[in-house]
Specification:
The protein is mainly alpha-helical and about 170 residues long. It has ten helices and no strands. The protein folds into two domains: about 90 residues, RNA polymerase sigma factor, region 2, helix turn helix motif (Rna Polymerase Sigma Factor, Chain: A, Orthogonal Bundle); about 70 residues, Arc Repressor Mutant, subunit A (Orthogonal Bundle). Helix content is about 75%, strand content about 0%. It is globular, with a radius of gyration of 17 Å.
Length: about 170
């Protein structure tokens, strides 16, 4: 990232080569519109090129992949907001993918059998809200846009997910 911050094109090319397949897969799990995913990818890497100097992970212990995903997730929410304001295709006609992400499976395995079982036992709609808010770090509003749900529904599902997890782990 330091080399990218110094406008090193070779370093940026290497970053893109290493991270773009993974990032594209994560974005496609949340959005089935390949055009929107391509737009978000482009916006994300442009933002990384412009703001690489602000990445504090080397000193702060953060990961470049986490920083990259945060940028991409926010760009995806922004793209969904734009689409909601100027719809070309009604949102209910867009296919939604709900296959479990590899990072979800890895997280469930790495944080212990009890928590993994509790996560696996959540209803898919509760797990989706928990994933967006906890793992992706999105706000209620961003989660609402990402999942196409009213904010009140997101809050209710988040509260229900916490309750179910608490009961399963006690």
């Amino acid at each position: 990232m330091r080399r990218v911050a110094r406008a090193d094109r070779a370093a940026f090319d290497e970053l893109y080569r290493r991270t773009s397949p993974w990032l594209a897969v994560r974005l496609r799990r949340r959005c089935a519109d390949d055009g929107m995913v391509a737009e978000v990818m482009q916006d994300t890497y442009l933002a990384v090129w412009r703001a690489a100097g602000s990445f504090a992970g080397v000193q702060g212990g953060g990961s470049a992949a986490g920083w990259l995903w945060t940028i991409a997730a926010r760009r995806l929410v922004d793209a969904m907001r734009r689409r909601a304001r100027h719809p070309e295709t009604p949102a209910e006609e867009l296919p939604v993918r709900s296959t479990p992400a590899a990072e979800d499976e890895a997280l469930a395995g790495s944080i212990g059998d009890e928590v993994g079982a509790a996560l696996a036992g959540l209803a898919p709609e509760l797990r989706a809200v928990l994933h967006a808010m906890v793992l992706d770090g999105l706000t209620v509003r961003e989660t609402s846009i990402l999942l196409g749900l009213p904010e009140g529904t997101v809050k209710s599902r988040a509260r229900r997910a916490r309750t179910v997890m608490r009961e399963a782990l006690s």
